[in-house]
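Justification of computing resources. Each target in the renewal requires a structure prediction run like the one illustrated here; the chain below, 334 residues long, is used simply to show the kind of job we budget for.
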Amino acid sequence: MSMFFQRLKEVSSPAVGLGCMNLSHGYGQQVSEKDALRALHEAFEMGYRHFDTATLYGATANERLLGNALKNKRQALLLASKCGMAIDVETGKRVINGRPDILRQQCEASLTRLKTDHIDIYYLHRLDPDVPVEESVGALGKLVDEGKIGGVGLSEVSAKTLSKAHKEYSIAAVQSEYSLWTRNPEIALIKACQTLDVAMVAFSPLGRGFLAGAIQVDTVFGEGDMRANMPRFNADNLPKNLAVLSRFQALAQSLDVTTAQLALAWVNAQGSHIVPIPGTCSIAHMRENLAADSLVLDKNYLSDLNSMMTPEQIAGERYSSAQQADIDTEEFNQ
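Resulting structure tokens:
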């Protein structure tokens, strides 16, 4: 059993984890520290035990937030963070750096911000094209040996990169965007994770709000909302994608569940080694998402869902060309 799942079992974690990025970063929300702390406390009380953050999120603010919220609950949860991508304090720009010395520095800083002596899973947030993945993973492996992290993770990598990295040091988990309308991991990564006994952590399992019904044809994305630059959400593609969504909404209604719960149940059904980490600022939505843990879909419903929102039915790429340049995952148009 992967070290990742051993830890989930130790803390009695449900199948659904919590992506914490939204509280500090990504979608333009302005969440006060008081409200964000309350949301994290409520998440723990309702049953979440898997919390995911990163050095990048909020330019380190998200890690500080989790450190303050969860410091007294540390032994009762799986805490994950990421390194190798950060905001340059002088330029304000995102910088990818996978050099061993940088990863060690970032880990030490993350431990301080998170108010802990170890991080359960520490992901290389992005592959640095100028640093062989073996060097980055080897450095993270040394941090495992020193007890500063529990396991090594990768994010937005291909099956080929995972294989190379795993030969250097055992990989515990890989994060990849995966949802009903983003099937890229099905090209090769899901199988590779299963073969190597690596957990696959699915971020944005609700399609960045799209599958939860949060996006309408007239939705205006505010300043700092990354979706404003994503092709699937532009004025040409969004109406086409919303038309495809209607069949999914009808199925959720017939099952008397929300579209978010149906989307998460679909991800959970794709394999026992796959764990979704939906993110939200809403305590009500946290509760709604967690309830999907008990929703089991029969083969007929899964067959219907699998035929919805297949790659050829979705208009637009998931990332802009600039965003795409920073990732290593397989694409359907390759």
